[in-house]
Write a structure and sequence with these properties.
This protein has 292 residues and is mainly α. Helix content is 81%, strand content 0%.
Length: 292
């Protein structure tokens, strides 16, 4: 029996505990936002945008999982992607535990139970963190420069991020190119979701673009604080502090709450799929085998 086989049962037990604990903290975070009061102010079309944005965000997370898979696969580029996506999805929920470091620790465990090498998984997670910072900075810089806010500083940040990206690419990491494309696509979609929600609340395209750029900066602030579960509190504080030139405090609070609801719901959908998809696929395979 290989190591991945031995780890499957402990991974299922620990995974079940992590899932239950994560659900509690997600529920607690969602309750603090008072979603009923926020959503009641929106019309039917705006509610549809928020709902579809949550589903779209869950789908976008698949891109991050694929990017992580490409580097974690190491010298085995033909390894199936589905086990990686499942392991990644399960770890997404763990970032809401007190101390988001659980996200990466649990990913090591879930990935090992799927047969991944610890060294390559750790390398892939480090590449992911670096790309998160670089790509989010580049896109935020571009959006803020286009909207006319922080033009010169934004341009300098973008150039610095591009330089860091070139240095990282020079290392010729296996799967780096695919991981970069996946992250670019993810953050572009993420920024679009933020811009749509900002447009709903503000109505002005330029201001929506500016607020979406500020949102990426605030997201980075939350991401860089490792002991804030899912960046909760840090992202919202940064958003309100930086967004006063774009919207009034009440609008910023609504924007912060709605974007948080979208990411909470999206993380839950993606994470839950990681736990329930394997059982569903197994059941379908059994039904297909019985029908033959």
């Amino acid at each position: 029996m290989n190591i991945s086989h031995k780890l499957r049962k402990p991974a299922r037990i620990v995974g079940g505990l992590l899932f239950a604990a994560s659900l509690y903290f997600i529920y607690d975070a969602a309750s603090a936002l008072q979603p009923g009061a926020r959503l009641a102010r929106l019309g039917a079309s705006e509610l549809c945008v928020v709902l579809l944005s949550s589903i779209a965000y869950a789908a976008l997370l698949t891109l991050l999982a694929i990017g992580w898979h490409e580097v974690a696969s190491g010298a085995n580029p033909h390894r199936p992607k589905l086990p990686s996506i499942i392991a990644y999805a399960r770890s997404v929920l763990a970032k809401y535990l007190p101390g988001s470091i659980f996200q990466y620790a649990s990913r090591q465990m879930f990935g090992a139970s799927a047969g991944f090498d610890q060294k390559h998984m750790a390398l892939s997670s480090m590449v992911e963190v670096a790309l998160h910072i670089i790509v989010a900075t580049m896109l935020a810089s571009a959006m803020l420069a286009l909207s006319g806010l922080w033009g010169l500083p934004a341009l300098a940040a973008g150039i610095g991020a591009a330089f860091a990206l070139a240095m990282l690419a020079a290392r010729k990491l296996p799967g780096f190119g695919q991981a970069l494309v996946s992250q670019l696509a993810f953050f572009a979609g993420f920024a679009l979701i933020a811009a749509l929600i900002a447009w709903i609340l503000i109505g002005a395209p330029t201001s929506a673009l500016t607020l979406a750029g500020i949102f990426l900066v605030a997201w980075l602030a939350g991401f860089l604080v490792p002991f804030a579960p899912g960046g909760i509190g840090i992202r919202e504080a940064a958003l309100i502090a930086l967004g006063t030139t774009v919207a009034d405090p009440a609008t910023l609070l609504s924007f912060a709450a709605l974007t948080r609801l979208v990411t909470l719901a999206g993380d839950f959908l993606f994470g839950a799929a990681g736990y329930f998809l394997p059982s569903l696929l197994m059941r379908l395979n059994r039904q297909a085998s019985a029908g033959q």
